[in-house]
Amino acid sequence: MGKEGGRLVRNPILPGMYPDPSICRVGEDYYLVTSTFEWFPGVPIFHSRDLVNWRQIGHVLDRPSQLNLDGVRSSGGIFAPTIRYHDGVFYMITTLVGGSGPSGNFLVTATDPAGPWSDPHWLPDARGIDPSLFFDDDGTAWVCGTREKERQSYRGETEIWLRRLDLDTFQLYGEELVIWEAVQRGSVWCEAPHIYKIDGRYYLVTAEGGTSTEHSVMVARADHVTGPYTPDPRNPILTHRHLGLDHPISCTGHADLVQDHAGDWWMVLLAVRRYGGGENLGRETFLTSVRWEDGWPVASPVEPVTSAPVVPAHPWPASPACDHFDSVRLSPVWNHLRTPRERYWSAGDGRLRLRLRPERLGEPVNPSLIARRQQHMDFAVHTALDFQPGPGECAGLVLVRSDDNHVLLVRTEHGLELIRREAGETTRLAHAELPPGRVHLGVEAHGQAYQARYAVEPGEWRDLGGPFDGRLFGLSAAESFTGTYIGLYASSNGRPSDNVAEFPWFEYLPLS
C-alpha cells in the first residue's frame, strides 16, 4: 500500500537522547524502547497507535533490583535494548556494561508493557552486546548478538552469533552459530542484529561502520534462520555518510523494522542532528518508510519531514510545560544519574525537595539530581529555588553531558555561581551576590549560545555573565553515547549535611 495519507511525520519522532530504538506491534498498538546508559530508570517504553504520536508509559527497568548502575562510567550501563511480543508476553533483552554488580546480557518479561517487568534473567553464555530476540513460526525462540572476533584482523572487527533460547528456563542451549560479519571490507562494529521472517524468508538487519558519521544499515537474507545469509546487492540500504559532515541529519543506523496495520513497512533508527559544531541532543529516534523490491527492503532517506502512515492519526494529550511536583511519583521524563540507593528526593505537595548528600557531579556516583533530556536546539528552562546554603554546599540548575562535561548554575555560601566543567577541568564563569530568600534560575539556549539568568524578584531577570559555549555538551556520537540532560541538583560536596533544597516548580519550553 502507499503512504499518501496527507499527514506528515516530523523527525525525530523522539527528540533528545533516545538512541538504539527497537519496536514491536501488537494488533494496532506499537511499543518502542531505547538505550539509557548510566541513567535510571532504564529503558523508557513508549506507546503509539499511528507511529507518529508517542507517549511514554513508563520504564522497563524501574527498580534497583533490576538495574545496578553503581560505579558505571559515563556512556556505560544499558546498551541497545530489543522489545518483542510472543504468545501474550512482552520480552525486552539488553546489555549492561560495567558497574560493580553483574553485567552482560539479560532479558525481562511482562504481560503488560507498562509493567511491572520481571527481574533480570541473566544469559551468562551470551557474550558481547546488542542482543535481539526472534520467535519463529514453530514457536522456537532464538537470540542473536554481536561480539568482537577472538582473532581480529583490525580493531572493531565483530561477528553476529545465533543460538536457541529455552523460554521455560531462559537459558541458551544447542549449537552456537556465527551467521554474519561486516559486509564492507574493513568496516568496524557490525552490530545491532535483528532477524525477521517475511514471506517465508529470513532477513537479518544489522548496523555497520560505528555509531558516528560512518553509520549504516545492512541487510542479508536466507531460506533458513541459521543461514547461510546472502547480502543485499544494494547494501547499505540506508546511510548518510556520503552526504557529508554538514548534512543536518547524520549517523543514521541501528534500525528495526515494523509493518503497520495498514500493511506498510517502516524503519525506526537512530540519527544525529548536528548543529553549530556539536551534537548536544545526542542520538535520537527517527522514522522512515520502507518498500520492497525483488524481495529486498528499500529504505527512504531520512528527512526532517516525510509522509505519515495512512493509519488513522492518534494524538495523545499534550504534557504540561511546567511540573509543579503535585504527585508523590515523579513524571517519567525525570531520571537519576545511576541507581538511587536511598530516597534523597520527595514531592507531592507542590514542591520537590532534594536532600543534600556528599555525592557530587563529576564522580561515578549517584548524586542528588533529577534531570530530563534536552530535546530542542533552542529552549528555555526556569525554576525557583528555596535554599540557605551552609559551608561548601550548593543547589540549583545543572546541564549534564557526562561526568567530565557539565555546567552548574548554583547557589552557594558565596552567592550565585556559574561553574563549567569541561574535559575534567573546572572554571567559574560568573558570580553574583544574592540576598536571602527565594531565587529564580533559568537557562536559555539558541543553538550553541547558552545564557544563564536569575531573578530575585519574579520577572526581573538578569543575565549571569555572557552566553557560554554549548559545544562542551556537543560531544560526538563516537565520544559520548548520551545526550545533554537538564536538572535540579543539590550537594554538600563531600561533607555530611541535614540541609534540604526545595524547588516549587520546573519549566521546560521549546523555543522553535
UniProtKB/TrEMBL annotation:
All copies of domain Beta-xylosidase C-terminal Concanavalin A-like, residue ranges: 322-508
UniProt feature coiled coil, ranges: none
InterPro entries assigned to the protein according to its UniProt record, in alphabetical order: ConA-like_dom_sf, GH43_C2, Glyco_hydro_43, Glyco_hydro_beta-prop_sf, Glycosyl_Hydrlase_43
Similarity comment: family membership: Belongs to the glycosyl hydrolase 43 family.
Sites marked Important for catalytic activity, responsible for pKa modulation of the active site Glu and correct orientation of both the proton donor and substrate: 130
Organism annotation: Thermobispora bispora (strain ATCC 19993 / DSM 43833 / CBS 139.67 / JCM 10125 / KCTC 9307 / NBRC 14880 / R51)
Alphabetical list of Gene3D superfamilies matching this protein: 2.60.120.200, Glycosyl hydrolase domain, family 43
Gene Ontology molecular function: alpha-L-arabinofuranosidase activity
Cited Pfam families: GH43_C2 (PF17851), Glyco_hydro_43 (PF04616)
Keyword annotations from UniProtKB, A to Z: Glycosidase, Hydrolase
GO biological process: carbohydrate metabolic process
Transmembrane segments: none
The protein's name: Alpha-N-arabinofuranosidase
Keyword Signal: no
EC number: 3.2.1.55
UniProt-annotated catalytic positions: 20 (proton acceptor), 191 (proton donor)
